[in-house]
Automatic annotation (TrEMBL):
Name of protein: MotA/TolQ/ExbB proton channel
Residue ranges constituting the MotA/TolQ/ExbB proton channel domain according to the UniProt record: 86-209
Family, per entry: Belongs to the exbB/tolQ family.
Transmembrane segments: 29-49, 133-153, 173-193
Transport listed as a keyword: yes
Signal peptide: none
GO BP terms in the entry: protein import
CC per GO annotation: plasma membrane
UniProt xrefs under Pfam families: MotA_ExbB
Length: 236
């Protein structure tokens, strides 16, 4: 037992030392890229938690409510099915209630629905911009570190004069290229995750539009809109 604990401790210390050596060789550029990677990971985990807690892409309850809305004369039963903590359900619920109230024109209801949808989508897109910036800056910072490292390597060659040691040059070059490798290692997964999260938001936007359109194009909605138009015409 003591032997395995000691072995685990040695391996842990060795890994920590390698990480420290790696950061020292890479210099400040690698430190910045490591910070970028931690920030990016935090944002991705935050977005995953947001999508999971809101169940933003779920269509189960909204589809059930839409089926009830199309088949029942009493739209209140459809509202009871919805879980309005979910973005799509909240939008569908507002649209149904506004139509059932029968006191607002359809065009005005659509405008308010669009406003609410934009607000909800902006919440889902929050923090995606910093993720995009990290994906853009990481390879550029890596390239900057490589250029600075190459400058240092050639300065060392110049200082050595005729007694240039090839190992010094090759050592300087691989240290310089290290920052580019780290920059790409940060950028590639961040770009992939950013595109994936953007696609999730686009899917939610499409589902919102589809669900609200189904509410408006139902027979019940057309009857309610016609009723409001007739009342406004008589009032005029």
């Amino acid at each position: 037992m003591v032997f395995f604990y000691s072995l685990e401790k040695i391996v842990e210390d060795s890994v920590q030392q390698k990480i420290v050596d790696f950061l020292q060789v890479g210099g400040p550029v690698v430190w910045i890229l490591m910070v970028f990677s931690i920030v990016a990971l935090t944002i991705v985990l935050l977005k995953l938690w947001q999508f999971s807690s809101l169940r933003a892409e779920s269509l189960k309850t909204s589809n059930l409510a839409l089926d009830k809305w199309r088949s029942e004369e009493n739209g209140e039963k459809a509202l009871e099915i919805l879980d309005e903590k979910r973005p799509i359900d909240a939008l569908v619920g507002y649209t149904m209630r506004a139509l059932l109230a029968a006191n607002t024109q359809a065009d005005l209801i659509r405008e308010e629905v669009e406003r609410r949808a934009m607000n909800q989508l902006n919440q889902l897109r929050s923090y995606l911009r910093p993720l995009e910036i990290i994906a853009t800056l990481s390879p550029l910072l890596g390239l900057l570190g490589t250029v600075l490292g190459m400058i240092t390597a050639f300065q060392q060659m110049e200082g050595a004069g005729n007694q240039v040691d090839p190992s010094v040059l090759s050592g300087g070059i691989w240290q310089a290229l290290l920052t580019t490798a780290v920059g790409l290692a940060v950028a590639i997964p961040v770009v992939t995750l950013h595109s994936w999260l953007e696609r999730k938001v686009e899917r939610v936007a499409h589902n919102m539009n589809d669900a609200v359109t189904q509410v408006f194009t139902s027979k019940q909605a057309k009857q309610l809109v016609k009723k409001v138009d007739e009342e406004l015409l008589h009032a005029a």
